[in-house]
Design brief:
This protein has 5 helices and 8 strands. Residues 1-42 have low confidence and may be disordered. The chain has helices at residues 2-20, 58-61, 110-117, 147-160, 205-219, and strands at 46-48, 69-76, 119-128, 134-142, 164-169, 172-178, 183-187, 193-199.
């Protein structure tokens, strides 16, 4: 009697599953962990919408602008989605092309390279004004215990590219300007790297330096969490 009840219950469960076609009817469905949740084109890391206020707005750059566009991307880099070996990469590369910042080996491995060099969060924004001007912002947040090595590597790289020192603190450069297309300014304030790239001929060094000061203050919130 007990066996027949069990058989009847099993058949009833199968019928419900077939009618509803729910994934809970099977136990061998592959669970989706953090890596399977990655969007296409991200070699490692997880995108998050948090802390978007830590990046420049279009109004910061073009007050009262009419038509404008802004896109942001914030990626958390961790060993759960990126390969092990943090602190072993050779980022930045030997390139001085301003368009290549943050100077990883290739766009396809940027997240991986940054993680291995000691970066735990990479935030970026692309802004376009009504006049067609484009400004790109990148903020690199080092992992705990990695900030000195990361900042020293990028500071040394900029010096090797003959970048102009805009300001110093305690005898150490904290802001650089590197000529090129785009023009590039980089800050090392607050144990993080904040960089702006101005695309087009309308960008001047002092204008980018002023915006870099605003970006420095904003980017502090990106280090939280």
């Amino acid at each position: 009697m007990l066996k027949s009840q069990r058989v009847w219950a099993w058949k009833a469960a199968v019928a419900v599953c077939l009618a509803g076609m729910t994934v809970s009817c099977t136990e061998d469905v592959e669970s989706k962990g953090p890596e399977s949740a990655r969007p296409p084109g991200v070699d490692c890391g997880l995108e998050t919408a948090a802390h978007g206020e830590g990046l420049l707005s279009v109004q910061d750059v073009w007050p009262g602008a009419g038509k404008k566009n802004r896109s942001t991307r914030i990626v958390d880099l961790a060993g759960t989605t990126c390969a092990t070996g943090q602190g072993t990469a050779t980022t930045p590369t030997n390139s001085c092309e301003t368009s290549g910042f943050p100077w990883t080996r290739s766009p396809d491995s940027s997240n991986q390279d940054l993680y291995r060099s000691g970066i735990r969060r990479w935030a970026s924004a692309s802004l376009e004004g009504s006049d067609g001007g484009i400004l790109k912002e990148n903020v690199l947040i080092p992992s705990d215990g990695e900030s000195d090595g990361v900042l020293d590597a990028y500071r040394k790289h900029l010096k090797g590219c003959d970048a102009t020192v805009l300001s110093s603190q305690n005898g150490r450069p904290v802001q650089f300007f590197l000529k090129g297309s785009p023009a590039l300014v980089v800050s090392f304030q607050g144990e993080r790297i904040t960089a702006l790239q101005g695309y087009g001929s309308g960008w001047k060094g002092d204008q980018l330096a002023n915006l870099l000061g605003v970006a420095e203050n904003r980017s502090g919130t990106l280090a939280a969490g």
